[in-house]
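Below is how a single chain appears once it has passed through the pipeline. First comes the sequence as given, then the structure the pipeline wrote out for it. We keep one example in the README because the format questions we get most often are answered faster by looking than by reading.
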Amino acid sequence: MQKDHIFVVEDEESLRNTMVLNLELENYRVSAAGKGKDALEQFKTKYKDLNLVLLDVMLPDINGYDLCKEFKQIDAAIPVIFLTAKNQTADKINGLKLGADDYITKPFDLEELLLRISNTLKRNRKEIPGSFYSFRGGSINFDTFEITSTQGQNFLLSKREIGLLELLTKNVNKVISRDEIIEKLWDVNENASSRTIDNYILNFRKHFEKNPKAPEHFLSIRGVGYKFVD
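Resulting structure:
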């Protein structure tokens, strides 16, 4: 099952690092930002892959309320939990009016935060259609043949490339042999070659790997075939 991706926006470095560490220990994928401008830029490229935002109100450049407005204009469906030292009822109402799903006052208990996160994610759980796959390297739309790379860029792939991506992503952590790939993606009268598959894999690494020379997702298993790791 795809891990939920949480975006932590908190300017206090020690608290931000603590939240990131504990969320990762809970098996969440985590992105983080310490300033509003950085958070907005990250959100613009990652929002399609985000499941929840933890948003500090008192940021040094753009306050959390204004940032929430920007986030909601880009994608109103992504849930937001405000984190703030303010404990006034008016502040909570203001945050909730902006579309926030919850409001937690600092200092907070870590277990309570994790519980609130879990409950918010359950309430906002989206059913991901079978024609779409999202992971840390980007996303794939099997219907439109469009992918979003790890840099947030969109590309259109060939039908056979999408077919190979679908075969690999449906068999996470399983080695798929070259023979099986050729059998499933080429007709018997077509002249398929391992070199063609190698080129496809190299292309996937360019799009989806942070460092194509040290791949984390599209792995070659020498003498056998390939494996996809989420």
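DSSP finds eight helices and twelve strands in the chain.

See the next section for the split statistics.
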